[in-house]
Amino acid sequence: MSCVRKELQQTIEEKLIENILLELDEDNTDSNDEQEEEQEEISEFFMLSLLALNEVRYLEPRIYNIAKSQHWYNNILPSYDDGRFKKIMRMFPESFKELVKLLNIHPIFQSNHITQQAPVELQLAVFLRRLGSKESIFSICSRYGIAEGTVILYCKRIMKAIISNKAKFIKWPTDERSREFVHAGFEAIGGIEDIIGAIDGTYFILQNAPQKEKYLYFTRKKRYALHYQGIVDHRGIFISYDIGWPGSVHDAKVYHNSYFYANRSTLIKGNDFLIGDSAYPLSPFLIKPFSKPNENQAEFNRIFSSHRIVVEHSFGRIKNRFAGIGDITVKKISTAINMIDCSIILHNFLELHNDAWEDYENNDDDSNEDNEDNNFDNVSDENLKRAGEAKRNWIMRKLFML
């Protein structure tokens, strides 16, 4: 390959990487004709570059090296303000850099092949575009000038690396110090003591029907979906979750088969309890609102709701930050589950790094809240319910000093 062609390839590839962050704000009212003409010129150059680069790739394998990775860090990242970067990558630049450091050490990126992998930051950027937007894989291919298989490969690598860090960011508050921290956080919201978490369920919509037993994934809202149950602390940080149940399954069944329920004897300490909506069974370790409340009970329900709403807010932030999981288009259910896993882990990672996502509305149309009473058959559930009623009355009396 001639020096001129190598130079052309390097220039084009740098432009392709740079294009990760080159998006015009469609709602920008300050744009003028000169800016529009400049963008048209950039788009035309980009498309011509793709054609030229595709021709080059047939002649010589594509090689990435440390210098290009450093070019991306040193020259491209600093050229965008924090707000614009976050709009595109769904996080601030500093969070992106920290995430790259975290993922970079995973063995999946330590290639022994002659041809080096693309830089982790480029693979992560492609994945974040997949997770953070509703663009099709074909659109992402066009944007980055890579094949569909390459997009899928990058996403698989990044998902595997992120999920390997799950235990670092999904933690139940078991020690005394962390329990007191969560108790104090919930109590500061509305005065109820000893809350260890807020629990709720939601749907993640599937655009295409699963290949096997698709009727199980069909919800009462007439959409295919995956059921997700999450438990958060007072900050909206997830401390436990279960994902993978078909959308037709009721909250109570997911709850009874959840990690929390199987391990409740070790997770619940002292007077700790969860707060949930009416879809969940009442017990000493899960309190829900009164049904058909009197005056005092109605006031209790109002205060109770102010504590419980933190979990709904968390769902809203995740779905708005990572729009790709709002309407998932994948061939395998396992891929959808991995995408949701990653979104929850990233949510905790970013919130713990003070990189919150506030641009959302709390109108989760996919909430699977159900106001039906649950009739459980076995005696132990009835005993738990009676004990839960006694504890709820005790909490109300303590709250109102009755």
TrEMBL record:
Cofactor(s), by name: a divalent metal cation
Domain DDE Tnp4: 199-348
InterPro entries: HARBI1-like, HARBI1_dom
GO molecular function: hydrolase activity; metal ion binding; nuclease activity
Keywords for this protein: Hydrolase, Metal-binding, Nuclease, Nucleus
Stretches of the chain forming a coiled coil according to its record: none
GO CC field: nucleus
Biased composition (Acidic residues): 361-375
Subcellular location(s) per record: Nucleus
Superkingdom to which the source organism belongs: Eukaryota
Region Disordered, annotated ranges: 361-382
Signal peptide: none
UniProt cross-references to Pfam families, sorted A to Z: DDE_Tnp_4
Family: Belongs to the HARBI1 family.
Name of this chain's protein: DDE Tnp4 domain-containing protein
Species lineage: Eukaryota, Fungi, Fungi incertae sedis, Mucoromycota, Glomeromycotina
